[in-house]
Write a structure and sequence with these properties.
Strand content: under 5%
Helix content: over 70%
Number of domains: 1
Order of helices and strands: HHHHHHHHHH
Number of helices: 10
Number of strands: 0
Largest sheet: none
Shape: globular
């Protein structure tokens, strides 16, 4: 079984190389560095903070898009080309196939995060960049597991990609939504306001706190302690495990 798992991981990484996703990631890094230099030339004050914040946000968004597209595109291609049917006709448990694919996607996310850390090392303290990179890997692991689950559930690229995008945007914005739910016009004596705020809290409880994953402040100012990464990694393990379990249920229910 370990040999089968390693083979699937290897094939997944080879597919990433053959589709030239890493070359596209290099172009993203170059474009991000060019944007940072442009912002440096027009910024009047806090030029370094602006460069780092914009570059980190752009690289994170690009990483999420690349991982989502790779996971959904790779898995959908294997289903359409009957590769999954061929693999599962062999003495290969479905759980091994799914875990191997996910492990390959996570390894691709690690490589991608390391590549995106390179331009930030020039602008920010190495300790802060390492923590930011670790949080990015945790975030991409959740995104990869979610994309795999969505494709197995909906079996259509636009729907799966839309669900992943909606989930990610909601989880990223949930901190701001909670603040707005108890903002200036919040009336604790109003039943509607109280119920709305509690409903927002309930949704936030079910979602990972992605807005806490690698904030730009880690790069702009003095780096935080490494202990800040522990709850982030814990959330990544919990949500990835839940999504993998749900994906396994869908995979075992499918007939090939």
């Amino acid at each position: 079984m370990p040999a089968q798992l390693l083979s699937i991981i290897r094939l997944t990484l080879l597919e990433a190389l053959r589709t030239r996703l890493l070359w596209f990631a290099v172009l993203v890094v170059v474009a991000g560095a060019g944007l940072a230099l442009f912002l440096d030339s027009i910024a009047i004050t806090e030029g370094r903070e602006i460069r780092v914040g914009v570059l980190a946000a752009g690289l994170r968004l690009a990483a999420v898009l690349l991982v989502s597209l790779f996971v959904i595109g790779s898995t959908l291609r294997e289903f359409d080309d009957k590769v999954v049917d061929l693999l599962l006709s062999l003495p290969l448990p479905r759980s091994v196939y799914l875990l191997g694919k996910l492990a390959g996607f996570v390894m691709f996310a690690v490589i991608l995060s390391g590549l995106f850390m390179v331009p930030l090392l020039v602008l920010a303290a190495p300790a802060g960049v390492l923590l930011w990179g670790g949080a990015l890997v945790a975030e991409l692991a959740i995104v990869a597991a979610l994309a795999l689950f969505c494709l197995l559930t909906f079996q259509h690229l636009p729907v799966a990609l839309g669900v992943v995008a909606g989930f990610y945007v909601l989880a990223r914005a949930m901190g701001a939504i909670q603040l707005m739910a108890r903002g200036t016009f919040y009336d604790p004596g109003s039943l509607f306001h109280v119920v709305s705020a509690r409903a927002v809290d309930a949704v936030a409880f079910l979602l990972p706190e992605l807005y806490r994953f690698g904030p730009a402040e880690w790069l702009m100012y003095d780096p935080v302690e490494a202990a800040e990464l522990v709850p982030i990694l814990g959330q990544a393990v919990i949500y990835t495990t839940l999504l993998v379990a749900a994906a396994l249920v869908d995979l075992y229910r499918r007939e090939f």
